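Thread title: Can someone regenerate the structure for this chain?

I was given the following input by a collaborator and told the matching structure tokens would be attached. They weren't. Posting the sequence so someone can regenerate them.
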Amino acid sequence: MSTVDIRPLNVIEKDANESRVIVFDWNESNLAATVTISTSTWIITALRPSNESPVALLNDNASILSGSRKTQTRLTAGTLGSEYRVTNRVVTSESPSQTKERSIVVSVVDL
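Best answer:
Regenerated them for you:
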């Protein structure tokens, strides 16, 4: 299993048979020094083909990492030749809280 630190709008390749942990570093997204992440939600949307149902790219073991300024999830499966948008939506600890979201594209290829 490999871990990949990602930046928003990145495109990463993933083999359909591999499990890959991805990490979003929200610290680099200009969170104020005292702000942490309260909640994190992962959303996967099939882009190509857009009618893939159910979405074959799966995620599990989602968490907010120590320090509460990074999030991670593990991606598994996926259909060869498909592309997916993987979005991480977080809610911040500040008052009033903010909802922020960043996405990447995952292309499932034969590596």
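The chain has one domain: 2-109.
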